[in-house]
Amino acid sequence: MEDGINKPYKICDVNREKKKGIVASTLEDLLTKVPEKLGLPAENLTVVLECDGTEVDDEEYFFTLDPDTSLMILHGTEKWAPNMPKCQVSLDQTDEVTLGDKTQVANLVGRLQHNLCHISLLGGQDLELLSDMDPDSLADIVTDRDNRIILEHIKEASGRILLEKRQAQDAMELLKLYHQSVSNGTEDVSPPSQERV
Predict the structure, then answer these.
(1) CATH class of 7-75
(2) Which sequence spans correspond to the domains of the chain?
(3) What is the pLDDT of residues 74-85, one digit of tens each?
(4) In angstroms, what CA-CA distances link 124 with 120, 149, 174, 197?
């Protein structure tokens, strides 16, 4: 295969803390320059697209990359993960309880801004905290207008999911009570070993 033309790329480590520019003509050329640029060992390196984790494992694919493509260099068993936005909380609050809740809300919002679908995996306390938050009082967490809209969507969705979870718990409790009353009232309805809820 013919040598490629030198093209610039952006490379970073798995934590996106070390970021460097690099010029390479081939994937092999890039991999020989990475250890010096990022301070990584020369062996067990994997190149992936920084944006979505697609592995760049052959020269043909490498040649199709545009100049200035952002690449992540993984070492050993490191895995690509999406770039999660980190919410910063102003620490000039005097009320520690409010600050604790605000910090927890900031962490939850930071996790959900990348993928709102994860809200359905949260527990009752987290959902309650999010559904009770006041998006207007969180201006130091999210200042961007689009992100404030996201906060409102998170508040609405968490309230809805919390309500659905509570309704499901209530239904389960009713089923348990019904099952207990049937079991206590009639001995031959179903043996205890076959109880299912």
Answers:
(1) alpha beta
(2) 7-75, 97-183
(3) 999 999 887 755
(4) 10, 23, 20, 21
